[in-house]
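FOLDING PROBLEM:
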Amino acid sequence: MQFGFLKDNEPRVSITPSTLEKFISLGHKVSIEKNAGILSGFSDSRYNNAKFYSRKELIKNSNVILSVNSSSFGMLNDYKGKVLISNFSVDQNREELKKEIKKNKILAYDLSMIPRTTIAQSMDILSSMAGLSGYKAIIKAAELLPKIFPMTITAAGSIKPVKVVVIGAGVAGLQAIATAKRLGAIVEASDPRQAAKEEVLSLGAKFIEVDGAVEDKTAGGYAVKQSKEYLEKQKEEVSKRLVQADVVITTAQVFGSKSPVLISKDIVEKMNSGTVIIDLASSTGGNCELTEDSKIVDYNGIKIVGNSYLASELSYDASNLFSNNVYNFINYIIKDNEFIHDDDDILKNCKI
């Protein structure tokens, strides 16, 4: 089978030299758009046994075409009869997307829809990228904060450790907690899932208890929509910590819905000047009322960073993880050089 990997409109790339070797070992042919990996540190010369084409040539010569984000595909009528594999979560109008896919006789798989199950762990791009985003969120906060993280005692006086509050203790939140603790911060975290409590405590952080959360074990590890009463209680409990925090990391997203607003403008106005808020939920509306996606808002000296794409700033490692996820997905869904079409939970979830 002939695979084609596009040059994305961002630094990451969906294939790296190490995963290229795996594809070839399975007997697949691989084409790569020229300079696809250059922004991730992978020059064309590092891809042995791959053919390089312009975009137009690559699309013509490939059966299966892959990219990090579906926005890199451009017009879908250029891909008639092809198989497309990507993260389609950026396409908000799913019904229109389905119509275009059907009209052009495209078989499309959305990697963002892979369920968070044990068998699918190695294909889970959201978890892979979330871990990197959580790490980078703390590093970004440390750059912007006018303080250092650890407690320091010098002849000139002592410096108190910074206080970090993490809202949402999923993959990104837990990595943010671990990174903040390594830097010497005092960390507290909030999450509606009771299962997150043990993980938060194991990392040395304090768990902010709020009773009355709705839990759904069938939600595949994602948070679920909470009642208005619970959200009010959570805001009240968390806001007590927020006004004392130096750094706030928000990660709370509900799959398929707008992110809940957990930090109102009123709370921001009570926070200390110099505080940094990193809102990883910005692409779906944000957890802070003042968040603007892909922007840094300075509100009375408080910096609010709206960025759901921080993994792209770690493009070398992000590309390696993403490309491994892609390879594991391909290896799972292709048997005897054909796509499997049986009643499989993973395929049912991610086929558009």
In short: The chain has two domains: 2-113+315-350, 126-308. The domain at 126-308 is CATH 3.40.50.720 (Rossmann fold).
